[in-house]
Structure prediction request, 167 residues.
Amino acid sequence: MALLPILRYPDPRLHTRAAPVREVNDEIRQLVADMAETMYEAPGIGLAATQVNVHQRVVVIDTSEDKSALLALINPEIIARSGEQVCEEGCLSVPGIYDKVSRAETVRVRALDQQGKTFELDAEGLLAVCIQHELDHLEGKVFVEYLSQLKQTRIKGKLAKKARITA
Ligand code: GNR
Ligand code: NI
Prediction:
């Protein structure tokens, strides 16, 4: 197991589109394990491979209270969505920044599990938000891109200042 460094916005590598996983093998299972460890340690409720500079379509999520429900999604696709909800989002790649984003209320996702088997999952509420947030990462999109240009500029300024202090 290993903790992986998380890319920070506005790192241009966060805008990379991830490639599909061709084969679910031990290397992918190791990536899932390392991403899960990194997510739990952060702590966060989700992590996309993009955020650890691996540009393959792999996501881990755990929205349970007691960190008991690890969900690994490989090559995930949203196959149905409905409704609308607004949630205050945060992102491990944009630390300390929280803002409201409108997303679908429910999604149905199809993905491969760690054995390479296809499964489908219906999600609502926070899990649905998290799935949509993580799939955006795989497309190279960070949640702040839903905010106004003014807010994005302010966020970049804040993070640059913080990076100077912590450097
Ligand atoms: O830990 C996280 N919390 C969160 C809260 C509201 C909406 C989305 C998220 S995902 C985030 C972890 C992360 O950055 N995943 O990419
Ligand atoms: Ni994120």
Q: What stands out?
A: The two ends are 27 Å apart (CA to CA). The mean pLDDT is 97.
